[in-house]
Amino acid sequence: MRLRYRIGMVLLTFLLLLAVGVSASAQESVVRAILFYSPSCGHCHRVMEEVLPPLREQYGAQLQILEIDAATEAGSRFYQLSTELYEIPPEWQGVPRLLVGDKYLIGSQQIPEQFPILIEKYLAAGGVDWPAIPDLPTEEFASVTVCPTWQEKYMQDPVGSTLCVIVLVGLLATLGAVAKSHSWQSRLAGRVRPWGFLVVALVGFIAASYLSYVETTQSSAICGPVGDCNAVQQSQFALLFGCVPMAIFGLLGYLAVLATFVYGYWGEGRSAEYAPLVTFLLTAFGALFSAGLTFLEPFVIGATCSWCLTSAVSMGLLLLFSAGPGWEALSRR
Fold first, then answer.
1. Rounded distance, CA 324 to CA 207, Å?
2. Are strands 31-37 and 63-69 parallel, antiparallel or unpaired?
3. Which of 96, 110, 12, 102 shows the shortest CA–CA distance to 49?
4. Which CATH number is 150-331 given?
5. What's the confidence (pLDDT) of residue 28?
6. Please, what is the Cα angle at 202 between 159 and 232, to 5 degrees?
């Protein structure tokens, strides 16, 4: 009887020690990750405000996330080092970027879908340390966030920013030139319509369509040698009223411009006579709206979108081409 009692106590003690050991091992397992973000990035705010808080609450001390502002000088340097370390291709470069273990996740769709799975995977494997970015001071960014000045944002891409300023000046000059009726406006319209107008409208429509695809599918944009289209598309200004992609708004604008132009040029009847006025007003609004967005790129966002500039230039030209017929339609009232 005593022998059975002793054996039972030994087994109970062993099981208790095993449970304590497993519990201690689970508590020691920590997943450490790095999130690169930008203060002007709408997708970043979505991840930081909606995705990460529930995960932090669920895992507590077992999940540590270092948030680094990639818009600062120091943060940009570590962002580039992480790009080289993880061999991230150009089409996948952008924020938010999350690094955990040997994996990298991009965007507000990939991070919430895959990060919880990776957390469980690494916890089961005993945890994972910080990504091996050289000279990364893991406490430097914990509580301090530095917002760059507009001059620093401009100099993040001086060539692209200068192009934005040139386009912005051109748009404002165009708006000023069509504010009153002039004879040259009708002569210009007579030379370019209808095919010149349609070609320029098609270029702008293609640019808006591509940006709509990028925004709705959260894909990485192909930007070319100048600018950072992904930074612009991931900024908080890429959404109208916080929910409608700005590119879709532009796409609908081009469709409206094309519809009123075609009806006014080839249509018949009293309403067709006033369609050029509607086209004129639509392009004026589009050019003014494009001017505001173009201003944001170099001075607020700190990045340039070549597709956005293409759309802005197209809308400015359409305004010039529609001014003459628009004023003529207005004079017939």
1. 26
2. parallel
3. 96
4. 1.20.1440.130
5. 65
6. 35
Residue 181 has pLDDT above 80, yes or no: yes
Is 219 strand, coil or helix? coil
DSSP state of 96: S
- Residue in the block written with tokens 């094309």: 258
Reference 274, options 313, 321, 202, 322; nearest CA is 322
What does the alpha-carbon distance between residue 250 and residue 221 come to, in Å, rounded to a whole number? 17
Size (the chain), residues: 333
DSSP code per residue over 270-319: HHHHHHHHHHHHHHHHHHHHHHHHHHHIIIII----HHHHHHHHHHHHHH
261, 197 contact by CB (below 8 A): yes
Nearest to 192, CA basis, from 320, 49, 57, 12: 320
Q: Is-contact 110 38, C-beta < 8 A?
A: no
Task: Indicate the SS3 state at residue 22.
Answer: helix
| Mean pLDDT calculated for residue range 108-120 | 91
Let me know: does 237 contact 246? Beta carbons within 8 Å. Answer: yes
- Separation of alpha carbons 55 and 308, rounded Å: 36
Tell me the sheet residues that pair with 137.
Answer: none
Q: How remote is the C-alpha of 30 from its chain's centroid?
A: 31
Query: Where do the CATH 1.20.1440.130 domains begin and end in the chain?
Result: 150-331
Mean pLDDT of 22-39: 71
The answer to whether 247 and 239 have CB atoms below 8 angstroms apart is no
Helix (H) or strand (E) holding 80: helix 73-86
Mean pLDDT of 236-242: 71
Instruction: Let me know: does 209 contact 231? Beta carbons within 8 Å.
Output: no
Closest-CA residue to 104 (of 220, 247, 241): 220
- CATH 3.40.30.10 in the chain, residues? 2-124
Any idea which fold 2-124 has? Glutaredoxin (3.40.30)
